[in-house]
């Protein structure tokens, strides 16, 4: 992506139609029955949700389906938010092949080694908005993008240290010293591959949606085990946590208009054209009205973590770039997340003001060294879309996990049952023994990933 | 600062002269004898360094001087880096007056209450580069900017919660609810005031340097105690740490081209004109040469935390936007820090490429609740310029502190002696009992701030 492209794409010079008040959410696309999916063999399967025929939540058809490996489980139900469940999930074995480089300096061709060279596991949750189209595309595509990106750097990943030059020739003797000084490790290549895969997938989704006349976007939360490490990549407001006997550790941060306020305001400062004169980039405790004019009110700008006071001018009465609090916070009055995939066509209702320039598709990646962690049998990662975290805190989830697992040691499906139990505890069911009192009206999807023995991937090449 | 201003200022359209290889550091201004300083009464004093007449480090004339309160001590010596010491320091009592607002709605005038309303303490270290001019200006100016910014919001600071409207009338009944939902506290106003004060001081320095035909910049590290809290604001590569009997806690982060790589690369991505076609924004493990062309080499771009490989093109052979490692890392081949004050005129040698658009004057602010901390008698904050931290880790400093203080309980000057001892331990002196083996050739300035009883400021209004 070049700056020219950025400007051509996002800074149109033409006149804009008069805007109307922005809508609260991207409107859903017409109902389309979701495809049901396969997950077997060496390519990840995708799992999605059924449409909801009646008022009570309905479990996904993936329930009870044999997964490619006995490690993760996605429980996806359709609650009361939309006519169709916009959450999608994918999981499976990740098989990285190896390219064999020719030894001749001028040799341009590469031979693809037919055998798997490195294997890992892959879990992904996609929470759609504006319809399920982007989430379905992401569930079908992202693992392929990731495999491709990993195969492009796998030679570097298995070297004692990633070499300066990938092809293994023309190396200066001092190159390894520079790599060492920069502290570049194999895991940095996996982080880079995850970042690139998210961007590549975003481009694919943009092309596919445009070609098929569909719209929408989705958040993406991905966990990958590879070479003894767990990678958690997050773009959006889903969350992954590590739960152990004595520890609860967040493995991701949420990216919303509130958490990314300064980045978003900074872009609006550098490119005020993106707001088309219809929004103010400043943050105020509430939306200002005419009788605030001339008053000194609390505000924050892009460079401020703290608050200050300013004298209200006419331009401060415009609709705020980021407005609302918590779950109600919206970017340009439209979107509740600031990172994710898709949304290439999303505009503020009845205007030409585009959301995409303010969104990032690149995830934040956390790395967990499982060899160092020495996971015990009941150490797990819980991945879930925001519907779960809206009503349960990390600590509440950990309490539910710790009260469930020890009593079900003999149950071979206990991790699946735990995922279901976590979802039920958000649904206000009377028969839920762990009911915490709050009810989620959002889609909820949960993966429970036991970490015990996950480090084995290291020895697979 | 508007975007128009930013573009007018930093995006000139004219042709540029052919650049030469960038210089390693901003060149020093001609020697100018530094002023010695005042520090008494209610306005902070400034402390600076003597010029070095011979090869051995010389202590500042501030040594032994009675400070306005018995709490901090700046030991500033001139080591072997430059002909004059570019470090500057200031400390003193911070006295905030109160504006009295008229009760009539149309009443525009304000009465300045003649008495101090809130008091706190202020310590600041400024590490100059390209000459001491900016550091001297900062030491003379920043505390006034801060006092002005605090006086503008002091009504909000002493309210149970900062009010939506400052002047105390025209408040909607629901306003306090919005302030509460946003979680805005009195300390957020102090953070905002510190952020604004740094920016205001930067503008003053820009005007003063231009008017007097001087150049240069400086880092700024400020500690303020106010209303039972300690605020540490940092823009640059100085550092403050909290040392207690069982705890060492960083109170600041360093801002260098390496730590702010993504922000700097992002700006170069959005505004490639800023590089005038002479630099590449990409990071490589080492500078690329002609025989790297066509090879796949390790690289990072603005959106990447991890690393990947790319095929080297001609444009990748340009000088990197950020080059070098650790202490050698330079922004545009010129500057070792990415935040600070001044540098308005700084250009890459013999080009029109400006450094200022890549620099931030806004600090990162850390807040320490001293009432909650309940500081013991030997709990201190150590503030020091990078010369100290280049040769001593946080843990080494803590060890020196803990070995020194308990044995000197009766010495009324023990905190001053500790500051001196810390500096001596970086100078490779044979008689230093705590010599750790490494020698700093940079300027070194240290404040030692005992926290015991610092919370008393709360009751002063």
Automatic annotation (TrEMBL), chains A, B:
Q: Where is the composition biased (Pro residues)?
A: 14-27
Which regions form coiled coils? none
The UniProt entry, under InterPro entries, shows: PP2C (IPR015655), PPM-type-like_dom_sf (IPR036457), PPM-type_phosphatase-like_dom (IPR001932)
Q: Which GO terms describe its molecular function?
A: [pyruvate dehydrogenase (acetyl-transferring)]-phosphatase activity
- Any one Pfam family match given in the protein's UniProt record, by short name: PP2C
Q: Which organism is it from?
A: Balaenoptera musculus
Q: Which residues form the PPM-type phosphatase domain?
A: 100-451
Region: Disordered, residue numbers:
10-62
Q: What is this protein called?
A: Protein phosphatase 1M isoform X1
Q: Which domain of life is it from?
A: Eukaryota
Q: Which GO terms describe its cellular component?
A: mitochondrion
Which CDD domains does the UniProt entry name for this protein? PP2Cc
